[in-house]
TrEMBL record:
SUPFAM superfamilies: Histone H3 K4-specific methyltransferase SET7/9 N-terminal domain (SSF82185). It is a peripheral membrane protein; Single-pass type IV membrane protein. Belongs to the junctophilin family. It comes from Upupa epops (Eurasian hoopoe). The gene is Jph1. This is JPH1 protein. The keyword Cytoplasm does not apply. GO terms for cellular component: endoplasmic reticulum membrane; junctional membrane complex; plasma membrane; sarcoplasmic reticulum. It is found in: Cell membrane; Endoplasmic reticulum membrane.
Amino acid sequence: TGGRFDFDDGGTYCGGWEDGKAHGHGICTGPKGQGEYAGSWSHGFEVAGGYTWPSGNTYLGYWAQGKRHGLGVETKGRWMYRGEWSHGFKGRYGVRQSLSTPARYEGTWSNGLQDGYGIETYGDGGTYQGQWTGGMRHGYGVRQSVPYGMATVIRSPLRTSLAS
């Protein structure tokens, strides 16, 4: 079955229904200021589809229990992220890149932050290739600056002498 349902808060749903919940394909438009989801539903939850926020930001990909989960693409302002999502956060592996400069990060993520190993390219073309923790460079890595092409090895923790 299917049809249209108008929520008390001003939102609407048009699409398939099963046992009183969105099921199959449908479009849900939230009340003013909340955006729109179009795609597949399973027993009231988003499965695979796209969400567009009033700001113009978008997400196209997989969902689980109302959160981004699995592979997906997010466009947010001047940035785009393509990769894996875990319980609503960027997770495991993905690429975040600027839509207007060469800036990008490709590597592992945890809870929405760079974590593990990755390569970051800066807007000026310089790079950092190495370890990350909680969104910060941490551990071993190599930073290459532009235009000189000089590389620096970064180690953490810093030692003050060879004996320490």
